[in-house]
Amino acid sequence: MTKPDAESPWGNQFGFIHVSVPTRNGLDNNDPLKIISKVKRLIKRKKRSLGVFLTGQLLETMRRFRGPEVAAQYIHSTLKNTSMTISNLIGPKEKMSLADHPVRNFHFMVVGVPQSLTITMVSYMGKLKVAMGTEKGFIDSKLLTTCMEKAFKRIYEASLEGKP
Predict the structure, then answer these.
(1) What are the residue boundaries of the O-acyltransferase WSD1 C-terminal domain, all occurrences included (predicted)?
(2) Please, which of 73, 82, 84, 118 could form a disulfide with 133 given CB 3.0 to 4.6 Å?
């Protein structure tokens, strides 16, 4: 748990980073690590931008003076103009238990959102869990699963190339 005098705040922290989904035309499709590096640099730059800070401050001010319902309406109105969201949660590094029952694994999903595709990620004990949810009839779930598995495999294999 966070100590009372810690620098990191308690509770949910919201911020938005608007990133266009890259098209295959503008990227080198043969090197998945190159694509990931390019997207990582873009997101890192956007995370450090003033826009993220100002959006967070706007939401906090809205919540404080007009109430959580108004802040939630603002978040929903922003999200309904997007087609996909990615959300993450940093989980504990140590094994945890609930009522003396060890927790082997867990994941989360944001439900009731207006996007066609939602991707959530959580880390727990150094392992990453990725969950995906789609609007009913938006995409063939088996096709999406196959594409994601192939993409993860390509990324993994590319990351091992050149290592002893």
Answers:
(1) 10-155
(2) 118
Strand pairing of 101-102 and 97-98? Answer: antiparallel
Cβ count near 32 (within 10 Å): 19
Rounded CA-CA distance 131/122 in Å is 9
For 7-29, how does the pLDDT look when each residue is reduced to its tens digit (9 = 90+)?
666 666 667 787 776 666 655 56
Give the SS3 label for residue 149.
helix
End-to-end CA distance of the chain: 39
**Beta strand residue intervals within 22-126, DSSP E:** 84-90, 97-98, 101-102, 117-124
Which pTM was predicted? 0.72
Interatomic CA distance for residues 40 and 22, integer angstroms: 12
Cα 65 to Cα 58, 59, 60, 69, 72, distances in angstroms: 11, 10, 9, 11, 13
Structure tokens that stand for 125 in this block: 């004990």
